[in-house]
Write a structure and sequence with these properties.
This protein has 297 residues and is mainly α. Strands 2-5-6 form a three-stranded antiparallel sheet, covered by helices on one side. 36% of the residues are buried. About 3% of the residues have low confidence.
Length: 297
């Protein structure tokens, strides 16, 4: 059953500000921190501030080689089941998102990549582009934990609008940007059949984020590498001669992409994201251009 059905709201998704989840199914939607960062409404600005506060501490500790402190920041990164967002293998109660075990793996991958020290990763959404084994599902889980208090407050506001009853209990941990620490508090929470639910604004979720490694790699890195190889007439460049005697040099992007794949397979790079990290480190302009293009959408 959907939230609107459970509480007899007599409203469809278009009329609701929150995602009308069906609590016994997974929704292939993800909380997108990049999308939040592009919004200018007061709630999103406040939420974005909380996300940046958390990640700035992660960056600070890693750049100061205080890795144990960075790992400690991830101690409350549980797999949030209250939103019913994302895809799991065994249903909404047993997902494959962050989880307490995976949280340590995530920070280990961030540290191992050295993407923060080199300046390639500056915001939390950058880790999806440059850090191995982190996808939009895990990023969404991380973000949910960080902004849980904002989602609790949003849920309370929506429940007041729609007359949905709440139960006072201690919340799960969330990041407090002002104390720069994880906290819990007594809150009026939404429960259905003993299960806590969090309502999520439609405006901050997406099916497929525009900010990802595939789009950055294909539209910026591969494109620029193709242009550079064309300029220096590399061995990949082809020449096409026309009947009128004229001709032109050309290089399909797929040939460049295949070359990158071969370099990875030959061990020149650890992975596709490692290639993106090293390529971007030489010229951050590509990442800046990628960010700018997405902000204009």
């Amino acid at each position: 059953m959907k939230i609107s059905d459970i509480y007899n709201l007599e409203a469809d998704q278009v009329q609701l500000d929150f995602v009308d989840i069906e609590i016994n199914k997974d929704y292939p939607l993800y909380i997108d921190p990049y999308l939040i960062s592009t919004r200018s409404d007061p709630w999103s600005v406040e939420v974005d501030g909380t996300i940046k506060s958390f990640f700035s501490k992660v960056v600070e500790y890693i750049r100061n080689s205080e890795h144990s402190m960075a790992i400690e920041l991830f101690r409350f990164m549980s797999e949030p089941k209250e939103t019913c967002l994302g895809i799991s293998k065994t249903g909404t109660k047993n997902g494959r998102g962050v989880g307490q075990g995976n949280a340590t793996d995530i920070i280990d991958e961030i540290i191992k990549s050295k993407a923060i020290e080199t300046g390639v990763v500056q915001n939390i959404e950058d880790i999806v582009v440059f850090v191995d084994d982190i996808d939009k599902d895990k990023l969404s889980d991380m973000t949910t934990n960080i902004i849980r208090k904002h989602l609790i407050d949003y849920t309370k506001a929506q429940c007041k609008i729609w007359g949905i009853p709440l139960i006072n209990q201690e919340s799960l941990p969330y990041w407090n940007r002002y104390t720069e620490d994880w906290e819990s508090s007594e809150e009026d929470l939404l429960f259905y059949q003993g299960r806590e639910l969090l309502l999520v604004p439609k405006a901050i979720v997406s099916y497929i984020s525009e900010y990802n490694a595939q789009k950055y790699g294909w539209h910026f890195v591969v494109t620029n590498e193709r242009d550079e190889q064309l300029a220096r007439r590399s061995s990949l460049v082809k020449f096409k001669k026309y009947k009128n005697g004229k001709g032109k040099y050309y290089l399909p992007k797929k040939d460049v992409d295949n070359q990158i794949t071969n370099q990875i397979n030959n061990g020149d790079f650890e992975s596709r994201k490692d290639y993106l990290r090293q390529y971007t480190q030489k010229n951050l302009k590509y990442l800046i251009d990628f960010e700018s293009r997405n902000q204009k959408k």
